[in-house]
Design a protein that fits this description.
52% helix, two-stranded antiparallel sheet
């Protein structure tokens, strides 16, 4: 009874409804159909949406516009906003910008924007879920995983960080990569610290028994870290007792080789770089430089007395000789940096090609070129004297190269005759390692069929093919199929 009259109270919205003997129940049923609080309650328990559908226009790929119905969902909009922030590296503060909030409200007045801390929690939570999915996938992975690491010091924080990336072939025979860790590495960055952080990451991803190789920078601490990784994981879990675990970063080595080679022309490089920096420092200098047309540097010295880094004629001549030689390193680095194709099989021939070119530069009439060649050779021999590990096996497995190409590569690498016992012994050593590797993977003997060792594709490496054809011609009755 309410104020002396019989009333019914809605259990959801607590609205008062008439409940007399003559009132009936139809109006009570009608109220339940439109009660907002009841709809929200049912939605939260059943997961269904009771929001009113709306119409929207959607542009198709061919340019046609269609009209379709959709239902606004706050959680979907919230998740998509978080995805947008991550994908485009937007700052979290964008959700606090007044104009952005007005823009969102104009697009969808029903969407409620939260604070940056809320979206930060959403993003971290989403990351943790996706990481767990990735770990579960990697746990079920049948192939081994090649791990690359990269360490650097953040300029703004003066702290060391290490990124750990896994590379593997999935069940569809597609090459894939996944970032497994972005780790803060406390100082000092010794081999023990690096090995500990790397080992913890591998254990977290259940990859300690699936590790193929570890690629690290070329420094003493990294070398020690790989040695410690072998002892932490155990030789029995690694390929060939861990003898092929350590891979040196080829890009870093190429950079060191070029850097040492350019030491002989520090003065010329300094003058050329300073000249470019000087004449592009201000718009006025750029305009003055454009007006001088040809022989700009010589005329620039006369026009602008403050210009003091004019390269000498000898430095210009030396730069002209060096640039074509350095283009070799640029082309090979670009080839090695490909992500849409396999690069392991071309590594060994290209590295041998570099060594052959460096050896040829040592016979130049220019003393500076000879000195550059000597510096590059010293750095090359320090890191790449012995590179017949997995890279050598990958060359054998390439149908274009096989055993005769390996002989040609070793002859170029060590500057020895292709028919010498030393060259043949080195190639036989690689073949033996490949057989041991096959045995370790426990392949059935019937599945392994020998292939003609002289098979070549229609597009072999053009630089060393003349050298290669000479060797093949001496290896009769072998026949090269083109």
């Amino acid at each position: 009874m309410v104020r002396g009259k019989p009333k019914g109270i809605c259990n959801y919205c607590h609205k008062e409804l008439t409940a007399g003997a003559k009132s009936g129940t139809s109006h009570l049923c009608d109220h339940l159909k439109i009660c907002t609080q009841r709809m929200l309650k049912l939605r939260s328990t059943s997961g269904k949406s009771f929001c009113q559908s709306q119409l929207r226009m959607t542009a198709q790929a061919e340019g046609n516009v269609t009209v379709e119905s959709y239902t606004f969902d706050q959680e979907t909009y919230r998740e998509e906003l978080g995805n947008m922030i991550v994908l485009h590296d937007y700052p979290l503060s964008i959700v606090d910008h007044s104009r952005f909030r007005r823009f969102v409200h104009a697009l969808q007045p029903l969407f409620k924007l939260h604070t940056r801390n809320t979206y930060r929690k959403d993003i971290i939570g989403r990351h943790d879920k996706e990481k767990m999915k990735a770990i579960e996938y990697m746990t079920m992975l049948q192939s081994r995983v090649a791990v690359t690491t990269d360490m650097w010091i953040a300029d703004n924080q003066k702290k060391g960080y290490m990124a750990v990336t896994g590379h593997f072939i999935d069940e569809s025979w597609k090459m894939r990569s996944i970032l497994m860790g972005f780790i803060y590495v406390p100082a000092p960055h010794t081999g023990d610290v690096i090995a500990e952080e790397l080992h913890d990451t591998l254990m977290q991803w259940n990859l300690d028994e699936k590790l193929l190789t570890v690629t690290v920078d070329n420094c003493t601490s990294s070398d020690k870290a790989v040695d410690l990784m072998v002892s932490k994981i155990g030789k029995s879990k690694l390929l060939l007792q861990g003898t092929m675990l350590h891979m040196r970063c080829y890009a870093h080595i190429l950079n060191l080789i070029v850097k040492d080679g350019l030491d002989v022309m520090k003065s010329a490089i300094h003058h050329i770089r300073e000249s470019v920096a000087y004449w592009t420092a201000t718009p006025k200098r750029v305009e003055k430089f454009e007006e001088m047309a040809r022989a700009v540097f010589e005329r620039a010295k006369i026009v602008d007395k403050q210009y003091e880094t004019l390269p000498t004629s000898d430095e210009w001549d030396f730069a002209a000789m060096v640039v074509p030689r350095l283009s070799l390193f640029y082309e090979i680095t670009t080839l090695f940096s490909g992500i849409d194709y396999v690069t392991t099989n071309v590594f060994f021939p290209k590295i041998c090609e570099i060594k052959m070119k460096i050896r040829q530069w040592a016979t130049s009439d220019d003393l500076c070129i000879q000195e550059m060649s000597n510096n590059m050779t010293e750095k090359f021999d320090k890191y790449w004297t012995d590179i017949q590990g997995l890279m050598g096996i990958a060359t054998l497995l390439d149908p274009r190269y096989k055993k005769h190409m390996r002989i040609a590569c070793f002859a170029m690498l060590h500057g020895i005759a292709s028919i010498s016992d030393e060259c043949i012994e080195k190639v036989d050593s690689v073949v033996a390692n490949m057989h041991r590797l096959i045995e370790e993977y426990e392949l059935d003997g019937d599945e392994y069929q020998q292939v003609d060792e002289c098979s070549l594709s229609e597009k072999p490496s053009p630089v060393i093919m003349s050298f290669f054809h000479d060797i093949v011609a001496q290896q009769k009755p072998a026949v090269a199929r083109l």
